[in-house]
Design a protein that fits this description.
233 residues, mainly alpha, two-stranded antiparallel sheet, RUSC1_2, Run_dom, Run_dom_sf, RUN and SH3 domain containing 1
Length: 233
């Protein structure tokens, strides 16, 4: 009889965890839909005004609004999802305890030989002198991944041995292997439309176009899927 009581409770616990993770995936979905809407509207404007191919609407030099939208909506949503359940520190015999971050996760997950393109991007971002904060480097890495590498990196990360080292068992990424695997598949489906678009985003876009994070006004949570949505400069 005791066993009959314990199993439903365990099931409810996992369901509750997955419900929280679903909110994180939902935030990514909202950001992607806003990017698609903005991409579509700006593409029309670019084509009418410049009479050039549609790839320019994904160029942050010509369409800075798209760059702002990616940085202010998609990057924070993915950062929240990937730092969910992230352990605060890593223990090292030489350096002692080292703080974890989304950027340290990027570095750890792009060392394998089969991740040559990811490794090159990570090195390129790490060598940018203007990006001193780990969060800014993580954002720049995501901008680079939008050249059709984002879903590849996430799939690679899920299969990577660093998960147990970096994440608690109740994190989204650890649960994506078991109870929340359907949510991870949903995440990849949500991101898939972005791989059909052509992005050319400046890795230093945040440095060139946005105020320092500590001085920038807080941006409200985006309840926007309106096709006329635009972020203020």
């Amino acid at each position: 009889m005791g066993e009959d009581v314990k199993h439903p409770m365990r099931g409810l616990g996992l369901s509750s965890l997955c419900l929280q993770e679903k909110k994180l995936v939902g935030a990514v979905s909202v950001a992607v839909e806003a990017i698609l809407a903005q991409f579509s509207s700006s593409r029309t404007v670019v084509q009418k005004s410049l009479s050039v191919n549609r790839a320019l609407s994904g160029d942050s030099a010509i369409n800075p609004s798209l760059g702002r939208l990616v940085l202010q909506c998609l990057c924070p949503a993915l950062h929240s999802l990937l730092t969910d359940g992230l352990k605060p520190y890593q223990s090292d015999l030489i350096a002692g305890r080292r703080p974890n971050s989304a950027w340290s996760l990027v570095q750890a997950s792009t060392r394998a030989p089969k991740t040559h393109a990811l490794f090159n991007l990570q090195v390129r971002v790490g060598e940018l002198p203007h990006l001193r904060q780990s969060k800014h480097r993580f954002n720049a890495f995501l901008l680079g991944l939008l050249t059709k590498l984002l879903d590849f990196w996430l799939s690679h990360l899920q299969s990577c041995s660093v998960l147990e080292t970096y994440y608690h068992p109740t994190s989204f990424m650890r649960l994506s292997l078991t109870a929340c695997q359907p949510l991870f598949e949903e995440l990849l489906l949500v991101l898939q439309p972005l791989s059909l678009l052509t992005f050319n985003l400046d890795l230093l876009f945040q440095h060139h176009h946005l105020e320092p994070e500590s001085h920038r006004p807080e941006i409200p949570s985006p309840p926007f899927l309106d096709s006329g949505f635009q972020l203020s400069t």
